[in-house]
Amino acid sequence: MAGTYSRSTGVLVIGGGPGGYMAAIRAGQLGQKVLLVEKGDLGGECLNRGCIPSKALIHASRLYHALRSEGPEVGVSAPEVHFDLATTMRWKESVVAKERQGVATLLKAAGVTVLAGRARFTGPRSVDLTAPDGGHERIDFTSAVIATGALHTTLPGFEVDGKLVLHAVDLLSLPSLPKSMLILGGGVSGCELGEFLARLGVEITIVELLPQLLPGVEADLSRELTRALEALSVKVRVGTKAVALHRGSVGVTLVVEGPNGSEELTAERLFVTVGKRADTRELGLEEAGVAFDAKTGFITVDDQLRTSQSHIFAVGDVARAPMLAHKAYREGIVAAEAIAGRPTRFDFQAMPAVVFTVPELASVGLTLADAERRGYHPREVRFPYAALGRAHASHATGGWVKVVGDDPTGLLLGVHAAGESAGEFIAEAAHAIEMGATVRDVAATIHPHPTFSEGLGEAALLWLGEPMHVAARRRVDDSRR
Amino acid sequence: MLFEFRLPDIGEGVAEGEVVQWFVKEGEAVREDQTLVSVLTDKANVEIPSPKTGRIAKIHAAVGEKVKVGGLLVTIETEPGATPKPAPPASSAVAPAPSPKAAAPARAAPASPPVAAPTPPPSAAGTGAPPGRVLASPYLRRLAAERGIDLSQVKGSGPAGRITEADLGIAPTPAPASVGASPAPAAPTPTSGGRAPTPTPPPAPVTAEVLERVPIRGIRRVIAEHMTESTHRAAHYTYVEEIDVSELVRLRDRMAKHVEKRGTRLSYLPFIVKAVVAGLKAHPHLNATMDDAREELVVRSAYHIGIAAAAPDGLIVPVVRNADQKSVSTLAREIQDLAERGRAGKLSRAELTGSTFTITSLGALGGVLATPILNYPEVAILGVHKIQRRPVYRPDGTIGPADLMNLSISLDHRVVDGAEGAQFLATVKAYLEDPHQLFAELA
After folding, report:
1. What pLDDT tens digit does each residue of chain B (443 aa) get?
2. Both A69 and A123 in a single domain?
3. N or C: which end of chain A has fewer CB within 10 A?
4. pTM of this prediction?
5. Which of B45, B101, B178, B232 to mutate to test binding with chain A, by most A CBs within 10 Å of its CB?
6. How far apart are CA B133 and CA B154, in angstroms?
7. What domain range is A83 assigned to?
């Protein structure tokens, strides 16, 4: 092969993760000529190394754990329950492969051309593509969407070696279960994967620098999770700093300093999960004239996801927090519509978020403290799962639904929940907030019985002072007088 | 009285911003809430409104300059007697609560939620709505964006100050009486012409702002579907050429005397048809139709020229068949006959189909330039504009009158590149500028 190949496209999408593939599909639907460049696997972090594989592993471990822990009480006994990690991993791989194929099919149906390789800007209208075989190709574009995602950050002295010290990627394809594992970082992935391993009998210790697990999440949600993890014999060390790591022949020793002084923690493995950073390396942003924040690494974008070069867009983790797949999805759609000249912007009232633990944690909208800072006069109530018939029938009475509303106007401001299926009915709350609903609107919506979603309806009634399934002091309604 | 306006705290940990654009100049008058300046932060472009009414005394930060929060942006000379009041903080629109990340492993850098579209602070005047949030459904927000309505300036009449369609002067979308309760759709009536039966939506209410609702039916619907299909499938581009038809005008005048004796009006169209046929012979790929299903260009051997014409119910395109084999006077007679019967609605289906190239002429109204939509699946359509007498430079440097006419040709760029389109029109131009050549094309 001699000479430099070149081609041109209307829209170039760099990165085939959630933000990138949505941008490509939408742009294709809108009649654009689209070329998508992906250096690894279609689907990005979410599909290959994040949301999807971790949910598959979590599902398997829950099934195993439920049979052992609650089975006998509800009359299901399976004295010989085995967990076979290799089979679970194979099943997880099949799930991921199916999803990945699905993305490829959707891209094809939208008329998107997919190329393997790494793209680097050589100017504001062109990139150099390095193919997996080392060949180069020049691609000229009219518009571009940067969707390169984020990279796991590393801590000096705690570098991942893939053997004793692991990343999430290593964890999601463990060849065998260690007896014990330390987890450095009590964020979402530390908690979800820590709980997954704890359910399978691995001794887990989670070390978190900040004063609570899931920093940034409401304290009561975090407390519910801490309690649940401790019930699985997980040791939780918050407000604790890792100061040194010794790598032995069969395990690691982590020296930490916490509220109670110094401590040496030992385990067979260490899982480091301390955050992510926008991946703009090797992108040639300077050549393209695209501005980014040197401190955070995020590419600067406006509400149409346009960068400082108005024909180049950035979506997903590379553009801004929060690093959520569903945020990236929407951003990809908005960028594609902006490219096609549609009136569009990234317009939302509330960003839902879910943590897939037991209890499941879900949140959308404002917390009480947020609402006060914004000048509302908020009030909140909590409705317990213990008052839901379905929770008893499903052997899942732990949890609650909290409703935050503005007292003078009755406006629904936020919903936060811990418990079974919280991540499902939180979508109803997100929709209500987007619609500008009042707490009364939610209370007046008929919720199907018997479902966990009734918890949201009941919490709204409780907020209004009209609870039906928790005892309230009897009072005469004199409002019609 | 001089008022110093400093970069307000835009929120979300923004420490500084870069001035992108000033919307005012020194010495200019400015009203309170008028947009002063656009500032780029690390999160978004924020437009900052003026806190005062007055005159811009001095701008302190040039475009491209970075200003820290609290840094001096502009000095405003306020009107005498204007009551000083604190500058309203530029509020960023609603941002979500700091929230747990979903399954994406690991937590992000310190969670700073994305700033949604920066909007000017809502006019707090009496809306009763809590600060910083536009209360409207996503559907309504999109509608407002499409119509360029700034919702932060709209007073909502719904619960908690929610904005409704009525608040925007938009008729509410008709909704079925109840969702999910006993759906009893009327049996769809089969319509003629093989169209798949589509349920007829209930009649939309006529409101004060609407004069009438004209149903798109019959020929109008066929035209609508045809045009939509054409614009969706073909990659249109248009190329325009100016033709000096002075010679053609003289020729037509002389020929008209003979032709009109036989009761036929002689327009310029027959000459243009002949020139087009000559051009098509030189560029056969324009005398063609697309077979999209097979991804093939079907190059045609016959020259059947469609002549777009206005009819009472809408545009029709009668076809002059085998135009290459007909004389100018025969063409004139046929075009006239087709047009007359077309207006009377008396053309057969065969006379309205089968063209290989289309000409659209607006006659005396013919304008300067058009971007005709292809008569899909054809790949070329020629728009004919009116002839105007205008002064031109002659080769010898003198200025004199000339009869000029523009031709606009739209082509399907999927199969006809710009060069070929241009060459075709150059051929047509050459024939029309020297119309005696056309006699060589006589059948």
Report:
1. 777 788 876 655 567 777 878 888 888 888 888 888 887 765 566 778 888 888 888 888 888 788 887 788 888 887 654 443 433 333 333 333 333 333 333 333 333 333 333 333 333 333 344 556 789 888 888 888 777 788 888 888 888 889 988 888 776 554 444 444 443 434 433 333 444 444 445 555 555 667 777 877 777 777 888 899 999 999 999 999 999 999 999 999 998 888 888 888 899 999 999 999 999 999 999 999 999 888 899 999 999 999 998 877 778 899 999 999 998 889 999 999 998 888 887 888 788 889 999 999 876 677 889 999 999 999 999 999 999 999 999 888 899 999 999 999 999 999 999 999 999 999 999 999 999 887 765 55
2. yes
3. C
4. 0.59
5. B101
6. 12
7. 5-152+277-339
- ipTM for the complex shown: 0.70
Catalogue all structural domains in chain B, each as residue range(s) with its CATH number.
Answer: 2-78 (2.40.50.100), 222-441 (3.30.559.10)
Closest approach of A67 to chain B, Cα-based (Å): 24
Test A188 with B104 for CB contact under 8 angstroms: yes
Site from B18, B99, B229 to mutate, A interface, most A CB atoms within 10 angstroms: B99
Cβ-nearest to B137 among A216, A296, A436: A436
Closest to B245 in 3D by CA, of B409, B382, B438: B438
Same domain, A309 and A262: no
d(CA A102, CA A100): 5
Q: How far is CA A408 from CA A447, A477, B227, B390, in A?
A: 25, 19, 54, 73
Q: What is the dihedral of CA B105, B106, B109, B114, to 10 degrees?
A: 40
Q: How far is A217 from chain B (nearest CA, A)?
A: 5
Hey, are the CB atoms on B101 and A275 less than 8 Å from each other? Answer: no
Interface test with B, best of A33, A323, A412, A441 (most B CBs within 10 A): A323
CATH of the domain at A454: 3.30.390.30
The domain spanning residue A42 has which CATH number?
A: 3.50.50.60
Are residues B101 and A350, on separate chains, in Cβ contact within 8 Å? no
Decide: B140 and B166 in contact? Cβ < 8 Å: no
Q: Is B127 on the interface with A (CB under 8 A)?
A: no
Inter-chain CB proximity A350 and B94 less than 8 Å: yes
CA separation for the pair A351, B96 (Å, rounded):
6
Q: What are phi and psi of A312, to 5 degrees?
A: -115, 130
Nearest to A50 among B43, B105, B232 (CB): B105
What is the set of active-site residues of B?
Answer: 413, 417
Put simply, whether B101 touches A (Cβ < 8 Å) is yes
Say if B97 is an interface residue toward chain A (CB within 8 Å). yes
Answer whether A298's CB lies under 8 Å from A320's CB.
Answer: yes
In a domain? residue A423:
yes
Q: A265 and A256 in contact (C-beta within 8 Å)?
A: yes
The C-alpha atoms of residue A206 and residue A270 are separated, in whole angstroms, by 10
Check: CB of residue B245 under 8 Å from CB of residue B387.
yes
Residues 211-250 of B with CB under 8 A from A: 232
